[in-house]
């Protein structure tokens, strides 16, 4: 009887897929476009192909891309192969020869693919059902997705690196969900290449001969056009994409210790110990909390959108986001009270208690409440807010010390005697008040960048590049306080890792505060001595 | 359980008594010892003996009516009971926005719309007082709405006017008369096959509920209720139907529809007999091993 039941179900499935194939409504929709809704200048500097001749973003003319950008940002930087002409194989559509040759040339790739759902898209009831949806959408029969489908540009008769726009031709719902990251603004994945090269210190470093020092930057910010970053090539396993390890190659380290804080939390430790009992073959929406996962994963928490619904991106519920942008709900003593200084391209202060953020918090609580009481979860997340309010307050106090020192003329060497803000000439030439606001743009225009820029967001350049005496020691002490230790403590607190919260977070913030106070006192003392010893 | 019982029969023909025995076993496990259950069992008994269709009809709907007196006016007892036991989830004013509602899924019912899922009345109608009483007493499986048999009968009926007071609809309209459940059709193999055909071909129920009833059909994730909340159909193969797990309960859902949700009434699309067959087919999808977890 059981077998009969299974048989019934299978045959029913078969019937329905036949019925679908018969319907095949030719649905007209616009082709997948990762840059949908972006202005022309943006598309022209991020999407339009220039090979390796030019950089990307507003400062594209100030640097050339790294070689690997062919692969990290293919729309903009991919160049056709030069050694072996592949056009004949594409022209004659010899899909078989791709495999025959690469079985020997790159056996690892072919074995990955052979073990993938793309090779056997109808091998399980689940895959069959998803495949027939795609067949219906694309109006073609898919018994296999092979090298040709992803890599053959049949118009140009060239090999291509498939961007998300290629994947989106079949996986449109996933593509559209991914596109929705734009609604939340940076940081996200879809704008990750933008964030990588829009900052002036990227081009400045290249100008000074440190382009390839930024090797890791390009690699880490390559998730904008590549869909193989979580479910890796050429296996493209959804189960792999659902495991926390899929995220940790990028989400780790001093400014976002996500891997460390999750992995060493009870959530992460229990996952590691009981991994074999976790069912990663189930889509997130089918996961039964407690049964399929005893503790949550990065994906389960972050790809939960709201009210029981999951989405194919992890950024929709972000409130404190990176941990850098100051909250609106505090009073500041430093210039942070005027943040964002009229600048249009950086995030405004975050209102933690806005209607939108209170709603987002309730979506988090929906996730937590699957395994915790609402009260425990809410109390915990309220403590996260308190940690952040106090950490931002500490950062503000530190910034006040640095800014007072500058105002009192004790910064040594002074702004007049050191290099300007990175790429100040480029900023003046390429940007405008439309980007930076009138006052800030005018400052660049009149002072040519010969002024200190301290604190979130644009003051962080010193974390990335050291120019002639710019920044100074104390500026980078403060940078570490708000861009390293505050963020470590933030992620430790948010991801329930007590040691990261304190010993990577609050405690080292205090120790930077120690250094900042001592350095300020030293500079003031030396300055006073100088006034007496070397009177003008 | 259901399937196994069937297969134990001589020639795989469904035996009515056995169907009931197995279904009662399920309802006993879930509902516990409470009065309405006993009453429902009596209903089942009547069904099995099937004296007359008239007797049947009477025993379905009014079963609680002659047992309990439901007040028409809001009383202090009603207000107190609601405040203490209902408002933490459903909110002080019945908007479904109590202090613990934010993290609950499914969301507690918003009573202000007068849209009740589980009724004996046709699609779009208000519920009868007995319908509300039944839901309070039985609870709603697959949610945090527990059976409130822990409260006295008097307390339970006292909140009914309170719930009704949250929606103006109860002032301007009367509930339509309850639908007639009528005489059950015999759940034969032929009838089950008919039900399957309806589920898979005629109405394409799998689009939302999936071919096996696991709530994983292609349109499942995008369903939304009239309150703007996602309402992905739950996996009913556990047998824990929200409106009750007797064949009458399931038949009633197909006949009345679930107001406020995308799950419509099929009173027009299907004949009474077809709805019984669909009921049996849907109940045949229950997987006993799932009920144990």
Automatic annotation (TrEMBL), chain A:
Transmembrane segments: none annotated. Coiled coil: none annotated. The keyword Signal applies. Gene3D superfamilies: Hydroxylamine Oxidoreductase, Chain A, domain 1, Hydroxylamine Oxidoreductase, Chain A, domain 2. Residues 1-21 form the signal peptide. Pfam families: Multi-haem_cyto. It comes from the Bacteria. Keywords: Signal. This is Hydroxylamine oxidoreductase. It comes from Candidatus Brocadia carolinensis.
UniProtKB/TrEMBL annotation, chain B:
It comes from the Bacteria. Residues 73-167, 190-286 form the Cytochrome c domain. One of its GO terms (molecular function) is electron transfer activity. SUPFAM superfamilies: Cytochrome c. InterPro entries: Cyt_c-like_dom, Cyt_c-like_dom_sf, Cytochrome_c-type_DH. It holds the Pfam family Cytochrome_CBB3. The keyword Protease does not apply. This is Cytochrome c domain-containing protein.
């Amino acid at each position: 009887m059981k077998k009969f039941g299974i048989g019934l179900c299978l045959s029913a499935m078969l019937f329905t897929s036949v019925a679908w194939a018969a319907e095949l409504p030719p649905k007209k929709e616009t082709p997948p476009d990762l840059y949908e809704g972006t202005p022309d200048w943006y598309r022209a500097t991020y999407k339009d192909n220039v090979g390796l001749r030019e950089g990307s973003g507003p400062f594209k003319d100030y640097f050339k891309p790294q070689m690997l950008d062919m692969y990290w940002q293919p729309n903009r930087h991919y160049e056709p192969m030069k050694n072996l002409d592949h056009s004949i194989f594409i022209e004659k559509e010899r899909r078989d020869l791709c495999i025959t040759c690469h079985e020997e040339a790159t056996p690892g790739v072919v074995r990955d693919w052979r073990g993938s759902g793309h090779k056997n898209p109808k091998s399980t009831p689940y895959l069959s059902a998803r495949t027939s949806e795609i067949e219906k959408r694309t109006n073609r029969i898919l018994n296999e997705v092979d090298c040709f489908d992803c890599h053959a540009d049949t118009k140009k008769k060239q090999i291509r690196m498939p961007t998300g726009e290629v994947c989106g031709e079949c996986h449109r719902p996933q593509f559209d969900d991914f596109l929705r990251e734009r609604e939340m603004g940076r940081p996200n994945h879809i704008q990750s290449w933008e964030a990588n090269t829009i900052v002036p210190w990227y081009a400045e470093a290249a100008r000074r001969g440190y382009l390839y020092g930024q090797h890791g930057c390009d690699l880490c910010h390559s998730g904008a056009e590549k869909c193989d970053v979580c479910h890796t090539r050429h296996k493209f396993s959804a189960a792999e994409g659902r495991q926390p390890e899929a995220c940790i190659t990028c989400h780790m380290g001093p400014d976002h210790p996500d891997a460390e804080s999750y992995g060493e939390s009870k959530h992460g430790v229990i996952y590691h110990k009981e991994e074999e009992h976790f069912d990663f073959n189930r889509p997130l929406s089918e996961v039964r909390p407690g049964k399929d996962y005893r503790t949550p994963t990065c994906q389960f928490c972050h790809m939960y959108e709201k009210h029981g619904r999951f989405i194919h991106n992890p950024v929709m519920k972000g409130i404190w986001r990176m941990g850098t942008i100051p909250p609106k709900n505090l009073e500041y003593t430093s210039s942070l009270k005027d943040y964002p200084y009229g600048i249009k391209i950086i995030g405004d202060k975050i209102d933690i208690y806005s209607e939108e953020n209170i709603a987002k918090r309730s979506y988090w609580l929906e996730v937590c409440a699957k395994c915790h009481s609402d009260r425990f979860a809410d109390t915990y997340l309220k403590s996260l807010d308190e940690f952040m309010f106090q950490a931002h307050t500490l950062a503000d106090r530190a910034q006040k010390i640095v800014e007072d020192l500058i105002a009192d003329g004790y910064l040594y060497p002074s702004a007049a005697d050191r290099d300007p803000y990175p790429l100040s000439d480029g900023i003046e030439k390429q940007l405008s008040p439309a980007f930076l606001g009138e006052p800030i743009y005018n400052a660049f225009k009149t002072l040519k960048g010969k002024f200190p820029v301290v604190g979130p967001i644009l003051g962080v350049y010193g974390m990335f590049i050291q120019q002639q005496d710019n920044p100074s020691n104390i500026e980078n002490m403060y940078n570490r306080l708000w861009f390293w230790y505050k963020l470590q403590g933030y992620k430790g607190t948010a991801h329930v890792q007590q040691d990261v919260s304190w010993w990577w977070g609050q405690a080292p913030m205090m120790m930077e505060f120690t250094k900042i106070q001592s350095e300020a006192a030293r500079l003031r003392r030396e300055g006073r001595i100088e006034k007496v010893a070397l009177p003008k | 359980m259901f399937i196994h019982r069937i297969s134990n029969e001589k020639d795989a023909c469904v035996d009515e008594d056995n169907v009931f025995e197995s279904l009662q076993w399920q309802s006993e496990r879930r509902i516990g010892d409470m009065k309405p259950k006993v009453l429902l069992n009596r209903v089942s008994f009547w069904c099995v003996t099937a004296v007359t269709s008239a007797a049947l009809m009477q025993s379905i709907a009014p079963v609680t009516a002659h047992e309990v007196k439901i007040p028409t006016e809001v009383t202090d007892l009603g207000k107190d009971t609601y405040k203490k036991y209902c408002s933490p989830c459903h909110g002080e004013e019945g908007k479904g926005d109590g202090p613990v509602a934010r993290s609950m899924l499914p969301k507690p019912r918003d009573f202000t719309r007068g849209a009740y899922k589980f009724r004996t009345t046709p699609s779009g109608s208000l519920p009868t007082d007995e319908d509300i009483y039944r839901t309070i007493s039985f609870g709603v499986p697959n949610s945090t709405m527990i059976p409130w048999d822990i409260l006295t009968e008097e307390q339970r009926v006292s909140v009914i006017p309170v719930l009704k007071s949250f929606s103006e609809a109860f002032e301007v309209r009367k509930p339509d008369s309850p639908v007639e459940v009528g005489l059950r059709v015999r759940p034969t193999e032929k009838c089950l096959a008919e039900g399957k055909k309806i589920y898979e071909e005629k109405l394409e129920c799998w689009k939302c509920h999936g071919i096996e009833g696991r709530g994983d059909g292609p349109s499942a994730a995008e369903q939304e209720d009239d309150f703007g909340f996602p309402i992905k159909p739950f996996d009913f193969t556990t047998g824990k139907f929200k409106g009750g797990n007797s064949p009458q309960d399931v038949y009633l859902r197909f006949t009345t529809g679930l107001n406020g949700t995308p799950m419509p009434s099929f009173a027009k699309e299907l004949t009474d007999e077809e709805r019984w067959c669909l009921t049996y087919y849907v109940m045949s999808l229950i997987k006993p091993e799932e009920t144990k977890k």
